[in-house]
Amino acid sequence: MEQEQQNSELKLQVLNKIQEDSVCPHSKWVYSGRECVVWTLWFVTAIFGAVAVAIALFVVMQRQFSFYEATHESFLSFAIEVLPYLWISIFIIMILFAVYNLRHTKTGYRYPLWQILGSSLVLSVAGGTLLHMAGVGFVLDHKIGVFSSHYPSQEKIEEKLWQRPEQGRLVGALVIAEKGPITDIIFFEDVKGIRYETNISELQAIDNELLNTGNKVRILGQMSGMVPPKFHACAVFPWVFEYERTVKELSEMRKEMKERVYRHRKDMQREIASAINQTQESSSNEEIRCADIAMVRRLDLISVQ
Q1: Which residues pair with 57 in a beta bridge?
Q2: What mean pLDDT comes out for the span 110-120?
Q3: Measuring CA to CA, how many Å separate 213 from each of 207, 220, 237, 239?
């Protein structure tokens, strides 16, 4: 009798609770639909996480071979400026959403948090790696940068780093060349449409070849006048965002760029020593201008790798 009374009281409590909360019965299809929605949201967040990983991997692979010595004192300061903070943030947010959605599935409560978090991380990283290998990271970063003026694509960041004439860096293309009897003068138009009367007397053959293609390039040198704008070129480097380059291409390009500037430094040192020995006078400022730029002085302390 006591057991029956307890059961009766329990039933009464349940009924009262249902009435208080105005609980209404629903079809099983409602719960099945809700379950599908939750799983769909989890899948979508995992996909966005994979996209974030793909773009982050593209940035890491691209930037580790950047010629950071021309723009920064150290690789650390360079990395701080170019890291894809937006996509790192998106990746973290998507992982948290994925964990939240998975925990709210029908059986999600059965699994510990570390397993749910780990599975979401593995899925996003694995998916992002595959997307990166397929070139999706580069394409998305480039396309979003073209579509949105506010998105800091890697191409925009590189252009911002190199379009600083006051620091001896320009981005643009050859406009016109005028051959003179003593020095070679060209007109170089930067990405802002400003034309510089540029002295290329100290450039090497490979630099001139790059300039003469008429393609977008980066120039390392020194401002020699403001009105009209004048620039003294010391080295010319190709633009690296026309298409996605392989790790091997990037590695060889970085090594070649570094060796070229370093070789230029040694060549200038030999010329100065020769001039001193022969005339007891140093070369003119124009002749040794490239030996004094910050990039060359920095590389003089670094052995070529």
Answers
A1: none
A2: 74
A3: 10, 17, 12, 12
